[in-house]
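Hi team,

Filling in the usual template for the complex we talked about on Friday. All components are listed, including any nucleic acid strands or ligand strings, so the model treats them as one assembly.

SUBMITTER: L.P.
PURPOSE: interface mapping
COMPONENTS: two
RESIDUES: 462
SEQUENCES:
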Amino acid sequence: MQRVRAMEQGKRSGWAHFWLGVPVLAFLAMVDGAGVLRFGRARLGPDLVLVAVILWAFLGDAAAGAIWGFLGGLMLDTMSAAPFATHTVAMVAVGATLGAARLSLYADDQAWALVATVVSAAGYYALVIGLLLLQSWPVSLGASLRALVLPSVAIDAVTALILLPVFRLMQRRLFAGPVAVT
Amino acid sequence: MRRREWLPLGLLVLAVLLLFSNRLEHRFSPREWLSRLSAAGQAASTTLLHNLGNAGVFFQNLDRLREENRLLKSKVDDLTVQVATLQEVARENELLRAEMGFASSHSVYGLRGADVTSKVVGSEPGSLIRALVIDSGRDAGLLPDMPVVTGRGLVGRVIEVNPTSAKVMLINDPRSSVAALVQRSRAAGLVKGQVDGSIIMDEIGRDEDVQVGDIVLTSGLGEVFPKGIVIGQVSEVLRNDTAMYQRAVINPSANLDSLEVVLIMTNPRGDAAGAGNGAR
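RESULT (copied from the run log):
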């Protein structure tokens, strides 16, 4: 009951998510694009924008996840050499699906956050690779999975655990409860 | 159904429509509009983040830097004499080049029209694709497929041009393929980027002579890269008795992980028609 009341208090319009998402995701996209957190020959590192979208969808609902997915994807697409909107489509799909699962009830449970991140990040990579293949980009599935996708998902999972308290605090301070969009 | 329940579906449809906008490149290009907005911010943030990183390294290594500073000061004295000598040589060289009508701004690539110098302002935000964002674009005369180099060797080629920025596909991107030859034995092959960021020279005839340490150059076959640009050095030769071809792992001569400034060859064939492409 208390949880439901908090949810009611926490309702905000989609614009609140939009205006919060613009600076947060722009900052993370700039860090992603500067390449300062990518190491080694394969340039592996945390996908900060993806992790932010996943966490916001995990703490919120489908609309919150979709709005952040759209913003984050658009920012990555501006910097990326991939066909435009590839990241946007994948992030909206992942954000909306994860948000629709209504896992915000488990916002305090790190294990759920970890599972949500691993599944969502893997889904995101599957969608991006699928979209690239559909647009005739040569992607070696087996090699990409071994050398890039699995390590990236693992790094993203660790990053999500580190960032989860920050996003939970942000969500509780600004939305006074599990995130919901009216 | 309330508005918020339609929102995810609406955004997904909008994203898919944007994906299809790639097919209408010349009539409607949202990426070009957004790149105008983001290019300046990306350049500023990349500089800031790199400077912050450098500041951290500075404080960590203060003692080592003091010692290094002392050594460098003594080196400066030695080098001052050498510089004076080399300035004389450079002056003489300049005169000779002018006499011979050489384009002299870049000693190695000047003849091939490497006349646009660009700062690297960003990199691909992910690991599936290996690309860079540079701060020159259509306004500086850049066009898709122009070769990109540094003083040390080949970097890649321009794949997307916006008014004030461009994207460069690196030679270690899995889509990259460059016709190449081994300098010593003239063995030909294709230098291809790999998923893990390494570079392999593939399709070298099984009887060709390739050894560790050999220098690999562009062969000039194909339309994009002119002949003779250094790609790298062979670090391993992969032979298989049953295969028709042998392969070689290449260590790129340009440091693809930490590029700051690159040169774009606006007239790689050195022809008069292409010379007008370079605007600065």
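MY TAKE: Residues 90 and 124 of chain A are 6 Å apart (CA to CA). Chain A has seven helices and two strands.

Thanks, L.
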